[in-house]
Write a structure and sequence with these properties.
62% of the residues lie in helices and 0% in strands. By secondary structure, the protein is mainly α. The longest helix is centred in the middle third of the chain and has 41 residues. It is rod-shaped. The N and C termini lie far apart (109 Å). The mean pLDDT is 82.
Length: 90
């Protein structure tokens, strides 16, 4: 009578059941991490770069650095406004 109350252990299909459970769990976790990264990191970074380059004036920055004397390793400074012809400054 005691042996009829015990449940037989599952032997057939045990590995397939555990694999199915863990594959679904891993897929769910990876999708949630990817969505979190996209909305918490990638989108704000993309917006920050767009805002920076929308208001950036690299020619003006170069002229300010040239006037400040940052470029000391070169003998002659090139005219930024005529980059195609590369006319040296006088």
């Amino acid at each position: 009578m005691a042996s009829s109350a015990l449940v037989k252990p599952q032997v057939c299909g045990l590995l397939a059941g555990r694999l199915r459970f863990h594959i679904v769990g891993a897929f769910t976790v990876s999708l949630s991490v990817a969505a979190f990264y996209k909305f918490a990191v990638a989108e704000p970074r993309k917006k920050a770069y767009a805002d920076f380059y929308r208001n950036d004036d690299s020619v003006n920055d170069f002229e300010e650095m040239r006037k400040a004397g940052i470029f000391q390793s070169t003998k002659c400074f090139w005219d930024v406004k005529n980059v195609i012809g590369l006319v040296p400054c006088s």
